[in-house]
Specification:
InterPro entries: Flavin_trans-like, Flavoprotein, UbiX-like
CATH superfamily: Flavin prenyltransferase-like
CATH architecture: 3-Layer(aba) Sandwich
Pfam family, one: Flavoprotein
Number of strands: 6
GO molecular function, one term: flavin prenyltransferase activity
Strand content: 5-15%
Catalytic activity: dimethylallyl phosphate + FMNH2 = prenylated FMNH2 + phosphate
Bound molecules: flavin mononucleotide
Largest sheet: 6 strands, parallel
CATH class: Alpha Beta
Radius of gyration: 17 Å
Organism: Shewanella benthica KT99
Length: 220
């Protein structure tokens, strides 16, 4: 399998924590922003996606790509410019598997405590875990969006050790100060914060304080 080289590429992983809507929205935004997205999905993530979004994703990567693109087209919120590659857990010859080709940025969203543990201990037992390990060793940008409550000391210790390595830990914890009217507003809040960290432009939420400091005001 050959992958056309694009300027902007990123690895995205969905794992079996609650929060499939975050993962879906993040993928959509990255494709709108013209990214080449290498998507890795754990088996538990497929169960959560079916439970939370009613989407039964095929285990075949090509079919899963078509399903996801069709889903976004039906929602038709924005036009997609990027490209999507859904990778299986043993696709060791794909770009995310090697430091010589892996995207410099990766997000695991949502991130289960199981995958958190695997990444913190360098397990690399699947492509998803290996991809995270590669981003850490290559000193790229890795963002984890864990969801569990309460966190045990095991979870907190894993998060601390990863944070000390430069990994960004962004728990799925949307704020309520922007007057959300729907669940989608809460999802967008979380995804907007992730996109901010990645340096991807978006218009999902208003920027803090900017309604008071518009361009017009600053010229006065
Ligand atoms: C509907 C559903 C919701 C779950 N929610 C969470 C969760 O919020 N956080 C978590 O860490 N695990 C959650 N789990 C359990 C994980 O899916 C499970 O530990 C799994 O082994 C994680 O595997 P993975 O890391 O390979 O995706 C959930 C499972 C299901 C079926």
């Amino acid at each position: 399998m050959s992958y056309p080289k694009k300027q902007k590429s990123i690895s995205l992983a969905w794992t079996g924590a609650s929060g499939a809507p975050y993962g879906l929205k993040l993928l959509e935004c990255l494709l709108v922003a013209d990214y080449q997205v290498f998507l890795m999905i754990s088996s538990a993530a497929r169960v959560v996606l079916a439970t939370e979004e009613g989407v039964q994703l095929s285990a075949n990567g090509k079919k899963a790509e078509q399903q996801l693109l069709k889903l976004f087209a039906e929602r038709a919120e924005s036009s997609l410019k990027g490209s999507l590659h859904v990778l299986g857990k043993d696709e060791w010859f794909s770009p995310p598997a090697s430091g010589s080709a892996a995207p410099k940025q990766m997000v695991i969203c949502p991130c289960s405590t199981g995958t958190l543990a695997a990444v913190a201990t360098g397990m690399s037992n699947s492509l998803l875990e290996r991809a995270a390990d590669v981003v850490i060793k290559e000193r790229g940008q890795l963002i984890l969006v864990p969801r569990e409550t309460p966190f045990s000391s095991i979870h907190l210790e894993h998060m601390l050790s990863l944070s000390k390595l430069g990994v960004t830990i962004m728990p799925a914890a949307p704020g309520f100060y922007h007057d959300p009217k729907s669940v989608q507003d809460l999802v967008n809040f979380m995804v907007a914060r992730i996109l901010d960290h990645l340096g991807v432009e978006h218009d999902l939420t208003n920027r803090w304080g900017y309604d008071k400091y518009s361009a017009e005001d600053s010229n006065k």
